[in-house]
Design goal:
The protein is an alpha+beta fold and 547 residues long. The protein has 10 helices and 31 strands. Helix 7 links the parallel strand 4 and strand 5.
């Protein structure tokens, strides 16, 4: 069954964190509703209930003069009721595209025997393109495209799914010229699908060998941007599944509470979305799959669209179709850009703040908890990491994609032992961080509570630089994990840390800085990184893209 929703909602606390850079980056919203014709997981969710849900979504958008993107499974595509409704939406400027979950009518139209338990089966090896050979994938694309053009007079410009593997995505771009795609936000095991360690928010150009992995070069990329969906809570979604447990969901989806079904949470999310000094641009997808049906999503859906109308009127957001945003992205960025998501207020009132930084080479997450700071996450990207599903179809009901971990505060943690690369500075008590986002570089100033000393951090597309100023005293970074965590590290040298995962060698080098191996101490101790002359430089490229 779909995701579980829990956790309690607390009041948002006051925050004195300073923002020092004017907001120059666009805030882009796509309203994406994806459509299934059948829902076998509940006898109460009939085809008529699913259709009425989409019609209610459309009526709400029409009443507010909002355009959206509707993505159709094949069996919804061939249904006359959906065809008529979608043509009405198309006539007023909405986009109609494809939702890439394979169904029985789709497989049989392509000439294949259906292997699923139901007409739509969410198990990965039948319901997603990972479960098919490349020849089958291409035939499924051709059949869908021919039918779509027959109905709407053109090919779809956007194709989305919880996940589309590289062979299908490249074929959609190379043969049919799609402008954009979208996939699920990071999750561990939810519904049997693991997507972990990727470009955290916004869009990336995927590798031709692995559609979850951002490419470092234009030559190695599928030239269509893939946008991350659903609007994850920047603070609390990450830890909703410590140690690899199936994650719950804290996202903008209108059925989530806390999350997109709770007005207080929505207000908090849209405030940080529009007012924080994010690097490059910021993006979010609003909307909901019709499988959740209208009544559970109605309150959250309507409240969110009301806020979008207000924010658009105030000039704070752009509301576009997915294809429009895809074209803008391609015109603006020849390769995956550096971006950030900044959160300086904690809606739970627990005084946590966070920064997500993404580039074509790595992602990093900083988490402040009161006066302390740690790297909660650090994953490298390498376009040469070949997906196991590229040449061989998935034979299991689940799929699994990961990047290259150096710090993993979720999978290397337990509820009682949180992993992280911690700032250790006994003489330093941290105050509120300040952020400047400009020219592809994210800088952070973390002052002491008394204002007499500070740390300056700079994130560029392939490196992190840290420098202490004033009387900070001795300081270093120390990686600790849960004692039984499975780690990738193969060698910790004086100025480098080497790791191996999924057949790929990678790591980080220090210049300046010194590394120290702590693994012999046990109890989850891993390594220590020390500065030289108050400075530390961390270079982040894997061995195969170091040129």
């Amino acid at each position: 069954m779909k995701r579980l929703f829990f956790l309690s909602m607390l009041l948002v606390s006051a925050c004195t964190t300073q923002v020092t850079e004017p907001l120059e980056s666009p805030r882009i919203v796509n309203i994406i509703n994806f459509i299934r014709y059948t829902e076998p997981r509940s006898d109460e969710i009939t085809e008529q209930v699913l259709y009425e849900t989409v019609r209610s979504q459309a009526e709400d958008l029409r009443s507010k003069d909002l355009v959206g993107t509707y993505l159709l499974q094949y069996d919804a595509l061939i249904d006359p009721s959906y065809q008529a409704l979608m043509k009405e939406e198309m006539a007023r400027g909405c986009e109609i595209g494809a939702w890439w979950e394979i169904t029985q009518p789709h497989a049989e139209a392509a000439g294949y025997t259906w292997r699923g338990r139901f007409p739509w089966d969410w198990h990965a090896h039948v319901g997603f393109s990972v479960g098919y050979t490349q020849a089958e994938r291409e035939r499924l694309v051709d059949v869908y495209m021919e039918k779509f053009k027959e109905i709407f007079g053109q090919y779809p410009q956007s194709v989305g799914s919880w996940f589309i593997e590289a062979g299908t995505l490249a074929y959609l771009k190379d043969k049919y010229g799609i402008e954009a795609s979208c996939n699920c936000r990071d999750q561990v095991g939810t519904d049997g699908y693991t997507l972990w360690g990727g470009y955290w928010n916004g869009a990336y150009y995927p590798s031709r060998q692995n559609a979850y992995m951002p490419a470092q070069t234009a030559e190695g990329a599928i030239g269509v941007p893939v946008f991350r969906m659903l609007g994850s809570d920047p603070i609390y979604q990450y830890e909703a599944g410590l140690g690899g447990a199936v994650q719950s969901v804290v996202t903008l989806e209108p059925v989530c509470n806390p999350g997109g079904g709770l007005p207080e949470w929505v207000d908090w999310f849209f405030k940080l979305f529009t007012e924080e000094p994010h690097l490059g641009y910021n993006y979010v997808q609003v909307g909901q799959e019709n499988s959740f049906v209208w009544k559970p999503m109605e309150r959250g859906f309507i409240y969110q669209t009301e806020q979008l109308v207000r924010l658009r009127k105030e000039g704070k957001i752009r509301i576009e179709t997915l294809a429009e945003t895809g074209r803008w992205f391609q015109e603006t960025y020849p390769v995956t850009p550096a971006t950030s998501v900044i959160t300086t207020e904690d809606y739970r009132g627990e005084n946590r703040k966070t920064l997500w930084f993404n580039s074509r080479f790595y992602r990093a997450n900083l988490l402040w908890e009161g006066p302390s700071l740690k790297f909660r996450d650090l994953h490298l990207f390498d376009e040469n990491l070949r997906s196991e599903y590229l040449d061989h179809p998935d034979t299991l009901p689940v799929f699994h994609y990961e990047t290259l971990p150096l710090v993993d505060g979720c999978l290397w943690s337990t509820e009682t032992r949180m992993a992280g690369l911690h700032f250790v500075a006994p003489a330093f008590s941290g105050g509120n961080p300040e952020f400047v986002s400009k020219d592809g570089i994210q800088t952070v100033t973390w002052p002491s509570a008394d204002g007499k000393s500070r740390f300056d951090l700079s994130f560029t597309e392939d490196a992190i630089e840290i420098e202490s100023k004033g009387k900070v005293g001795e300081w270093y970074l120390e990686l600790t994990v849960a004692p039984d965590a499975v780690l990738p590290f193969t060698e910790i040298g004086q100025q480098s840390v080497q790791a191996h995962s999924q057949g790929m060698d990678y790591g980080m080098t220090l210049s300046p800085g010194l590394a120290e191996d702590l693994r012999s101490q046990g109890d989850g101790m891993v390594l220590r990184l020390r500065p030289e002359g108050g400075r530390m430089g961390i270079q982040l490229r894997s061995s195969s893209n170091s040129g």
